[in-house]
Amino acid sequence: MGVAVYVPLLVALLLGLGARPLAHLLPPATAARALTGTAVLVAASTSFVLGVLAFTLLGTLPPVAALGRWSVTALAAANPVPQLVAGIACAAVLVLGVSGVSAVLQRYRALAVVRALCLSLGGEPGQLVVLDDDHDDVYALPGARGRIVASRSLLACLPADERRALLAHEAAHLHHHHHRYRSAVELAAAVNPLLRPVATAVRFATERWADEDAAIATGDRRVVAQALARVGLRRQEGRSIRVVGWRTAALDAADSAVVARVRALLRPPPRRHPAALLVLAVLLTVTGVATFDAQRGAEHLFEQSETSVAVPVGAGVTAPA
Q: Does the predicted model carry a pTM greater than 0.90?
């Protein structure tokens, strides 16, 4: 078990640094899928290697060694991981494990509130619900019984074509289940903070994905850009967005780089960039190979320690003359 055990951590850092450029370079749907899948696999890999590093220290505890039937002395002598590094890994596993569980519970509670809210709003799944609210807002409540919610005041201020564009955008969020991508990558970031930029990039990519769907539905990219700009300005003018539990799950774009999205809509549709996908494929391959190497190295380390345990005379084995 050598330096390969640290490679997944380096890959997570590189992925975090490259997430934003990739989200802007790749077609939105491709970016959301590729970044989410890569982030989840890298998070799983880094969690595994942190566990391996931590166990090289935990394995030297006599009760653990007794259960594993290996020699504490032999393990300590053969272990290539410095005790300081193993100790940091132990702390990281504990802290990030708590962070991951907390993120899962928070997301579960938010989605449970969303389900209850959808039932209270009435109507059929995917329907538009208009609220008499003095707060200009529009968002999609995700899930099997999701709804599109908009304030009457916001809809009234939009021309008919921009209103269609806005509702097509929110419908795309529900149709493509964008909350699943966001949830997955946010959980990955919870267990590996190096991946937090990826969560931001996936949020941007899902918004751009919905923008492109709206552009196809309306047949006019400029109309979608105008709708985004108008809604963004009204939100800035009345910046008093309420912070409640379900907003952690709602698919709204209040802070999702509106200027960058408008600029993208004023350009031709994005093209595929095979080189960018190749970069992600290389990162995943390197991560997989390094994780496998770390597993084999850990197995070899503990197997060596097991063979070093002395067999007492009289335990069914004839002592040498």
A: no
